[in-house]
Every structure is written in structure tokens, then in C-alpha cells.
């Protein structure tokens, strides 16, 4: 399946084969360089190595969000120079969201920008981070605070890479798939809620519809002026609880925190929008069945509210939410008073 992004580049979903690299060869780059992290170099690179010239420089960086920073970028830029990479080269970025965001940023700034191609290897990067042109790194303790908008020459999504991805990472990425259905596609949500076992999902059918939802949203709002905020459903409270437990043993993965956030923000949607109590029940039951429940202690409420107040989407000190007016329909720029947010958290706690 091929999805076109505003006639600028294509997203291919399916098996990566020699034909992909024949297409890349036809673009007559002076050379190719490959970026991977330590895990994707070991587990994903062997699946495409046969298509690469033997002397392709491979730049491997340490894995994980803690390395999504300027120091790693500096090493990457140095490695590009050392490999003799010039303006007319193409970078192949093989990895999850961390590697894709960072290698895309490094490519976009090296010698004022070289072309890059994305091969996402986590479920999150397949359905979320590789679509939409946002690239960057964490700086001054703030996530994604330095970066650029820039498009790859293509995105090749091959679900085969998920075979080595730990189940907890798959479940985390799946949170964004649930979100995409809930904000924009009732039919997709109806399909999703019948899925009970993530180890048996046919990703080739679920991924394209999810990518397409994000694609349509970012096409309408490429620079996050409005509509793109729909993608924040579940993220206002989700981000706060993700940050709250970040450096503890209770740490939640992003998608797990978003799933809890979607439950609470669905409750808010019944209070402030037209989401029905039946729909709330369905969303709650589904997210709890997939992600379990981690009780939010009452004494964490002041800090959680303070974290929500800092959210960059807020205006006039009111916490900004994306809510649902129905399953499959988002409503952006809703605001809620603190008392109501506390009630939403208590609803989640049960
Ligand atoms: P990640 O890139 O850290 O990958 C998670 C872990 O899985 C890492 O340890 C990685 O080495 C490993 N891994 C990757 N592919 C693998 C595979 N196929 N088999 C085995 N292990 C594999 O995390 P992520 O969840 O993919 O991405 C999170 C990042 O994405 C965050 O930094 C977030 O800010 C960013 N993001 C960006 C956007 C955007 O629009 N640009 C959107 C959402 C998220
Ligand atoms: Mg997210």
C-alpha cells in the first residue's frame, strides 16, 4: 500500500525489497549512509543489509530517550564528516522514534541539509513519529525543544521489524493506534475494540488506516496551528502522569500513560462534550483490559495539576484539552477547571 503525502513523498506499507533500493539507486545519490541505534543495528539492519553496497557507512548511536540530545547529534555530525558524506548523499534512518527524530534532524542540518529516508522499526514510529515532518531532540530537560519541520524523501514501513520488538513496546505504540481511531475514525475504533491479543494482530491491515488518519490531519495542519491538536487526545493528563512517574520504578511507557489519559479525558468528554456514557464505558473497559490500571495517589494531585498547567498548549492559565464529542470525533481547544480534572482522575481510580 502506498500513501502519498501532498505529492511530496510516499509512505509505503509492506515488505521492503530490492525494488525499494532500485528506486533509491535511480535517484543517483553520491552515496548512502545509514543511521541506526545499537538495537536496530543488531536486530533490524540484517534484514536490509543485502540491499546496501558493502562500503555503506553505518553510524550507530546509543539507544533510548536519554541519548536524544545534542551530544549524540555532535557525534553523528562528526561521523558524517569522517565518512566523507557530502551534500548529495542520502541518509537512511533505521530505528524507532528516538532515532528517526534525531537522525532526521542531524540530516536536515548537516551541510544545510541532506536528503533522508525513514525506515521506522517500532510500532510507535510506524504509525506516529514517522508521519508529519517533526524532527528534533531534547534540550534543557525539555522534550523535543530543538528541532525542525522537514520531510523525508520516503517512508518505508515494514511490519516485519515488529517481530523483534518487545511486547511492552508494541503495546505502548498501540496506544496511538487506539487514539487515532477515537479522534477521527469510528470504523477503525470498531475494529480495534475487537482486538484482544496484540501478538496475533494483522499489522498490515491496522497500520495503513492508522497512518492515514495521522497523514490526513497533518496534511491539513502541517505546522500545528490548529487541527493537529486533535492528536493530543489523552496526552494532557497522559503526559502529566508520564512525567510524574518518570524516574521511579512505576514509570509508564508513553502509550500506557496515554491510555490512562484517554480514560480520564473521555470522562471529561462526557461532562463537557457529547460523549455518551456507553461510549465512555467501552473506552474505559478496552483501555483497562489492554493496559491494566495504576492507581494515582491523592497526594500526587497538586503536582499533576501543576504539570498540566505547564503544558505548552495552554492559554490564559487554563488547561487545554482535546476531547471527544463521540467515538471517532475529536473536539480541540476544550478547557476544564481543576475540580473537574480531579474528578476525572478519581473516575480513573475507580
Ligand atoms: P525508541 O526509538 O526509543 O525505541 C524503543 C526501544 O526499542 C529502543 O530501545 C530501540 O532501540 C528499540 N527498538 C527499535 N526498533 C526495534 C526493533 N524492531 N526490535 C527490537 N528493538 C527495537 O522509542 P519509540 O517509542 O519508537 O519513539 C519514542 C520517541 O518518538 C520519543 O522521543 C518521542 O518524542 C518521539 N515521537 C516523535 C513524534 C514526531 O512527530 N516526530 C511523534 C511521536 C513520538
Ligand atoms: Mg504520543
Protein architecture, described:
The chain has helices at residues 18-25, 38-43, 45-48, 70-82, 97-109, 123-129, 167-184, 186-192, 203-220, 235-244, 254-272, 277-291, 301-309, 338-349, and strands spanning 2-5, 9-13, 31-37, 58-61, 89-95, 115-120, 134-139, 142-149, 154-157, 319-326, 329-336. The chain has 350 residues and is of the alpha/beta class. The strands form 4 sheets. It has a 4-stranded parallel β-sheet. Strands 1-2-9 form a 3-stranded mixed β-sheet, with helices on one face. A hairpin with a 2-residue loop joins β7 (134-139) and β8 (142-149). α6 packs parallel to α7, α7 (167-184) runs parallel beside α11 (254-272) and α11 (254-272) packs antiparallel against α12. 43% of the residues are buried. The mean pLDDT is 95.
Key phrases:
single chain; 350 residues; alpha/beta; 4-stranded parallel sheet; 3-stranded mixed sheet; 14 helices; binds nicotinamide-adenine-dinucleotide; binds magnesium ion
